[in-house]
Amino acid sequence: MNNHNMTPEGRQAVLESSAELFHTHLTGTAGTILTAKLRLAVAKCARTALWCQGCNDIPQRTCLRDATRFHALCQDLQHNDDNSFPELSQEASQVLVNMIHAIVRHQHRLDKTWHTQTIAALKKANIVDNDNDPHTIHALFCSIVLITAVSHGIQILFLVLDTPVPPLPTLEQVEKGAPDPLNPQFASFVKNVRQDEKVALSPYFCKKDLDTNSPEFQRVLEERDRNTFLKIIQYFQPVVAGCFAPAELIMFWDFGLKVYLAAFGSPAFFPSIFFSRKLDRKHHCASVSRHDIELVADAITEELQCAY
Question: Which terminus has fewer CB within 10 Å in the chain: N or C?
Fold first, then answer.
């Protein structure tokens, strides 16, 4: 499909396809570490976070006050969906709600301290068993981030088109169709874990750090997913930090292919769009005009009260 021929109807069809992909992920595929019920709860929480009055009440300049740590501040907010995870303890539920709302509503306020404190809160909440594999907590963090990003992304894209947002699957659909979590034993196939804040705050590994012949690696990823996963993690970019949640990372990648590449008709453009740091027309989607860029910049300037 040529980007110059993309019609509003064509774009909506692409977005509907992406929503169907997410629906299939939640109802028919295994998550990395979260149960089907928890994955659905994360996706729902990401949708309701957009309208949270508690998040609206944060002073605009909060992120500019050195004495304020956003993780602690977020805990004191009256979120509109504090009961999103009824099967968890109140403490664990609050940790997830705070994290998801922070990602959806306050991404520009999140820093190294927020990341460190969120990881610590997830460990303390005992949402998953992290005693046997120290990387389990990173798998939990990555799973939540990626599910939140796609669920919220679909919501925003349909709202922009002034079109009803496709509903998430029901609990009955999810519990009936989705397999149990993969629960990978990362120590069985990850030979080296990297930590480089120039790439990402979270630890990560890349293709050369894996034993791809490991039976555990081949159990976790089927052949098609295996090839996709290895392609994603060959790039030293922030997306590589999603490696500890391979099921969700592949879903996130497929979502990106559908939404951002439909106007090109060729996945060959994907690396140049997502991984190039150049901001000229040769390296980003030609369907995004100068007017579109300035419109977004103006909105960000107004929201953050800055001076771009």
Answer: C
